[in-house]
Amino acid sequence: MTMQYLFFGIVTLLTLFYHNTEWFNTLAVTFTSVVLEAIPFVLFGALIGGVVEQFISRDWVVRILPKRGWMTTLVGGGLGLIFPICECGIVPIVRRFIGKGVPLGASVAYLLGGPIVNPLVAASTAVAYDGDWFIVALRLGFGYVIAVTTGFIINKMFAGQPVVLDAPNETADCGCADGCTTEIPERKFGGKVRDSLKTAADDFFDIGRYLIMGAFLAALFQTLISRQAVATELLANESFAIAIMMGLAVALNLCSEADAFVAASFAAIAIPLTAQMAFMVLGPMLDMKLLLMLSTLFTRRLIVVISLSTLILVFLSMTLLRILL
Prior knowledge:
Layout: H1 2-18, H2 22-55, H3 58-64, H4 69-77, H5 90-99, H6 104-113, H7 119-128, H8 133-158, H9 189-224, H10 227-234, H11 238-252, H12 259-267, H13 273-285, H14 288-294, H15 300-324
Helix pairs in contact: 2-5, 2-9, 4-6, 4-8, 5-6, 6-8, 7-8, 7-12, 8-13, 8-15, 9-14, 10-11, 11-13, 11-15, 12-13, 13-15
């Protein structure tokens, strides 16, 4: 709550003292566009999460997942092919999956891989790069490998530790004094629809406030950072270019279904492919609004490990790609 008050105070002060300036008008327009771009995906993700909660039983989820932990993580990294969603809306779905008993490593693999390894992102990337399916394969391939590797790291480091904050649990409201694990009694279809909408609304408003704060930070960075000025520095050293483009990916908070068009625009000013790929792979896995939304689900320590693992793996992967190309 303190963070929200601080955010409100900063926005109020900026509005009072700078509302007539050109940069503030740019900030306001950019902030509005980021929010309007992200909200439909957050809502869509919340709706899918509500459906998962009310219509998919824990037994069904457990039954379809592989029994071995490492296999479950491998499947989790590719769940975006079944549940395609932008990173703006993936947190509510991951929240519900964890409540259904999906292992933490597999849930993290889906959290990172789902916004990249899905048909919508494949199509948008192909369009942005004029049908170059090699670029598409590189993006989805690196996205999957990094997501699964991070899932394995999380499984190794946090096995059995309480790192999830108030994840929904089907057994929480069963009414048993001894904490039984009995499934919630079967309800009629109309009741499930109503409850799924209520669940979606709760998730949407819970995560939406952090989306607003993240969108403001994204707009602030987009207003203050000049792409042309950065591009001049990027041409000097490819490793530096990769690092800078990774920083831009975190700062700009673009949707995974739109960031390929921005990355392709950097190709026009001779930014290396490895740096473009770093931008497209890291952005959907780690940006400021996603970090704020994750604070509603995971402990700070787990978020730090996910972030550092993702950053290191993306940089190492792009360095390897530079050697191979």
